[in-house]
Every structure is written in C-alpha cells, then in structure tokens.
Design goal:
Layout lengths: L4 H26 L21 E12 L3 E12 L2 H21 L7 E12 L6 E14 L5 H10 L5 E7 L3 H27 L3 E9 L6 E7 L17 E13 L1
Antiparallel strand pairs: 1-8, 2-4, 2-5, 3-4, 5-7, 6-8
C-alpha cells in the first residue's frame, strides 16, 4: 500500500469508531435508569392466635309491663291548606288538654308526627282539598287502666287514630337478670365443649353482650270509634320477654 493511502484508511477507521461510540452513548442515555437494591426485611407479624373455647349463651326473662305507650292522632280535611292547619290546631289542642286532664304530665307528651298535604280525589291527580294530621305520643304509667285512658282520648279528646304498646319503665333490671342466666348458659356450653374435646377450661378472657334494643310490645291499632257505646275498651297487658345473648371466651388450661 502506498504511503498516501495509509493515512486515508487510518483516518476513516478512526471516524467510524467515533461514530459508533457516539451512537452507543446516545442509546445508553435514552434508557431508563435501573436501580438494583437488596430487599428490605419485612417486620415480623404481631398477630398471634390464642387457642381457646368460645361459646354463646342466651336467656329470656318474662316480666309484666308497667308502662304503656299511647299514640293518638287527629286530622282535618279542608279546601285550603291554611284552613286544614287551623282546624287541626284546634283539634290537637283539645286532645292535649284531655291528656293532661287525665293525669299525663307535660314531659310524657310529645308530637311524633305532623303533616299537611294535598288530598287527591280517587285515582285522578285533581286536588280536592288539603289534609292535615298530627300524631301525639303519650306515656301512661298505669297499665291496668289503659282502656279507660284510650276511651277518654277518643270520646272526649277527639282522637281518630289510636295505637298502644307496652314496655318497662326500667328495663335494665330485667336485662341484668337475663344476662346472668345467659352467661351461665354460655359457661355450661363452653364446659361441655371442653369436655368433648378433652381439654380443660382456663381463665375467662372475655365476655361480650350481643343484645340490642329494649323490650317494647306494640299492641297495634284500635278502632275505638266503631265499638259499641258504653262498653269499656279492654286492653290485655300480658307479659314482655326480655332476651339477652352473650359470648364468652375461655383460655385452655
């Protein structure tokens, strides 16, 4: 090869190498960065399972109610809403006055419902007047005279919608009695389960009351206006069932 050709060939080789290097640098720069790191140690689980014997128990105690809940209502239908509301106010005032006259205290009288709405004729959408209604809740503390109280509210008070229910003035006493029995029932079940499994019951770890609400017996509605005049209303009181459910958790000895 002549001396003139060698420098040219050498220069061309150098140029090719430089171009390849630049290309590699550009490709490398365009790739996302990848970081490789050792995985961190996960914290040990703090959740532990404690073997035990779990059982539920229930009990029901029957008590005679000593409190009656009376719901009495009046309503009015007039051509205008204002007239219906005004007439309703007069009827409600008469009803409340009668409730007080038979011995119901102010604290035992409260409004449970009040409404004024258009009244439609038949299945048509024509408004033929306005209906106003008010429902009043009363507490009556002598369950043996509930019938007489209802008669007074209808015959002298003008009530047209009447409902009655019974309850306990202090349901906690009956609930405590039922709870003791329910816990005894749960413990008996837990002991039977332990005996069947061949283990011994250890310490009682937890007792949970799964009950809710209080005992109220709603007797339903009465159409007192349709009954024969002079015949006193009879409202049997009966018994209330107070139920309690518990859960007990025992360790295994």
């Amino acid at each position: 090869m002549s001396p003139t050709v060698r420098p040219v060939v050498f220069s061309g080789a150098v140029a090719v190498i430089c171009a390849v290097a630049v290309t590699l640098a550009v490709v490398a720069a365009s790739r996302p960065t990848v970081v490789v790191a050792a995985p961190t140690a996960l914290p040990p689980s703090t959740a532990t399972f404690t073997p035990g014997v779990f059982a539920s128990g229930d009990a029901t105690v029957s008590k005679r109610p000593d409190l009656a809940f009376l719901s009495v209502g009046v309503e009015s239908l007039k051509p205008t809403a204002a007239a219906a509301q005004s007439d309703l106010a007069s009827k409600a005032a008469k009803l409340i006055a009668k409730a007080k006259s038979i011995g119901i205290a102010d604290k035992d009288i409260n409004t449970s419902g009040y409404s004024v709405n258009p009244n439609y004729s038949g299945s048509n959408s024509t408004i033929d007047g306005y209906r106003a209604s008010e429902q009043i809740s009363l507490k009556w503390h002598n369950v043996d005279t509930v019938g007489a109280a209802l008669d007074a509210m209808v015959q002298q008070g003008g009530a047209t919608n009447v409902n009655v229910g019974f309850g306990l003035a202090n349901p906690k006493v009956a609930q405590a009695e039922a709870r003791i029995q329910a816990i005894g029932d749960a413990k008996s079940k837990a002991q039977a389960m332990a005996d069947a499994a061949g283990v011994k019951l250890g310490q009682l770890m937890r007792v949970t009351d799964l009950s809710y609400g209080g005992p109220v017996n709603y007797g339903g509605s009465f159409d007192l206006a349709a009954k024969a005049p002079g015949v006193p209303t009879q409202v049997p009181v009966g018994q209330l069932d107070v139920s309690v459910t518990v859960e007990v958790d025992f360790a295994i000895a």
